[in-house]
Known about the structure:
The structure is a homodimer.
Chain A: H1 3-17, H2 21-34, H3 52-63, H4 75-78, H5 125-134, H6 143-151, H7 154-163, H8 173-185, H9 193-198, H10 207-218, H11 221-224, E1 235-237, H12 257-260, E2 268-270, H13 292-304, H14 310-320
Antiparallel strand pairs in A: 1-2
Helix pairs in contact in A: 2-10, 3-7, 3-8, 5-8, 10-14, 13-14
GO molecular function (chains A, B): cytochrome-c peroxidase activity; electron transfer activity; heme binding; metal ion binding
GO cellular component, one term (chains A, B): periplasmic space
Subcellular location (chains A, B): Periplasm
Amino acid sequence: MTTKSLRSMLAxxxxxxxxxxALSNDLLEEAKDYFEPxxxxxxxVKNNAVTGDKIExxxxxxxxxxxxxxxxxxxxxxxxxxxxxDDNLETSIGHGWQKGPRNAPTVLNAVFxxxxxxxxRAEDLKAQAKGPVQAGVEMASSPARVEATxxxxxxxxxxxxxxxPGEDSPISFDNMAKAIEAFEATLITPYxxxxxxxxxxxxxxxxxxxxxxxxxxxxxxxxxxxGVNLGGEGYYPFGVVEKPGADVLPAGDKGRFAVTQTADExxxxxxxxxxxxxxxxxxxxxxxxxxxxxAVAIMGTSQLGEDLSDDEIKKITAFLKTLTGEQPxxxxxxxxxxxxxxxxxxxxxxx
Amino acid sequence: MTTKSLRSMLAxxxxxxxxxxALSNDLLEEAKDYFEPxxxxxxxVKNNAVTGDKIExxxxxxxxxxxxxxxxxxxxxxxxxxxxxDDNLETSIGHGWQKGPRNAPTVLNAVFxxxxxxxxRAEDLKAQAKGPVQAGVEMASSPARVEATxxxxxxxxxxxxxxxPGEDSPISFDNMAKAIEAFEATLITPYxxxxxxxxxxxxxxxxxxxxxxxxxxxxxxxxxxxGVNLGGEGYYPFGVVEKPGADVLPAGDKGRFAVTQTADExxxxxxxxxxxxxxxxxxxxxxxxxxxxxAVAIMGTSQLGEDLSDDEIKKITAFLKTLTGEQPxxxxxxxxxxxxxxxxxxxxxxx
Lengths: 351, 351
């Protein structure tokens, strides 16, 4: 083969894989109206200065199973930082092998959500962190038990004093939550190919992915899934146009209705943030759908009233896979040593 | 205060805290007959070359909960590297919240033990690694399920091919165990104060600790708890002189008898390795004793026929706390992404 024919083949391959620069630039400008890249620095959080000492403490707490009454379940059990920040289960397994009611949302980039949980009942990550620790089907502990546990270990005394300087009684359930929030603010995943695209390097997304992005905007996905997290910013009924079957949308879970007691919030949920979505199957609050293409199809019929074609579904899914960012690298923490004062594990399930 | 009186006070303090150099040197020479320091390099293991690629793969596998059928329990669940390499529970909690029969031994320095498990039924760490993965009360998986799981994820295909170059079918249950063994060989804790003492720096152990070491040798503890791990090298009846109560030594667990079916091996267990012992409460195969001083007292009466005085117990315990070494620092692994081929979690308990 001559060098010339090889070159023209390569040129052809590039032509197939990447849209023309002009088209890409139009798409980029349109995309910028809807989406924002993940910042490469740790974002600030409200009413909680994110310091290095607080992050270090929060990391210990995030991985410490002794925040649960069994001493077996940590935040990382259901929000596994090696697995996209969730547990890849339909719904989580907690204290006494009890099944939780909803699919565990990822902790990655959660700092960018408008509020936490599928129904947004926690206004921020420090409020969220207090929930699972106390939930009987999750970590089954209590503020008093957590405080007694942390106060029993000298290394925690030191770490809390450093993270909350000048406070009279630095170890508290509130400060536990603040430290965890500070650590979680570091769990962001910048540098995805979509972020690079948004920053102007349109060549990192191939033709199929760009076509998927165009469809994502044109069919209306982006009206709910926008912003930094492509979701996580607002509340919408699951089934705007057509309710999915009870297998996907169980009748017993009425979503935000339980929070607001407002009739028109029945089956309303926070739009799922789509960052790293390929890492966090199964999908939806019910965790009933394992396949991302199937999830896209369901969204089409239930939210948009669109029977997306197989080709459209493939393209949108290809686009969604460009949302996988650089996963946070974490040095596994060495945890404080227990003392005779540390409350003993409680394995029994109290109902 | 004059400089001179300050100096003489300091001299006095030093005199109180550290024995004379001559006494320390005698003790050091005696100690060297019984004990060996932990090497500062990763030891080799039999029939399994420890390579960087194998260690990296082994680390992923060690932290991957998808080796369990629930996709919730990893090696690190019961051998938590942030908590001394065990779970600080009486006996471990496994699949379906079932309680395991014995206290989880630490994985730290386990590579130096003569054999694995409390009854030594696994000859090495690669044999050990296959046990909990299959045990119904632990991870409740099977070789076939593990292989199907690993083969379903392209990133594991790549990692196994790198770790086991030239093999036709690198993903296998055997190779899973070999990779875990290679990673576990890195989980050693050198540079404890006792190691520094053994290397000749006798000043790192104070008077009480050195007195404890002397007692540890003189009362006979060191006849079973010797070598690199101060234990883990041989099998002995629990209750050589006097059987402890059924609360500490439950009648139903006959130890090595179940392995060898030899009558005189009833209630015979591997002498517990004592490295990092202050991090791994509760103690004994039953996990019934939370207090290290109490454990020392029980060993005195049951194994040596000695009612150790409170002062002796305190000194021996002080010595045992010099066995805490530098804990291994591990970068938490980002795990391979599941595919549609990955077996789904099985949460039911099959009895």
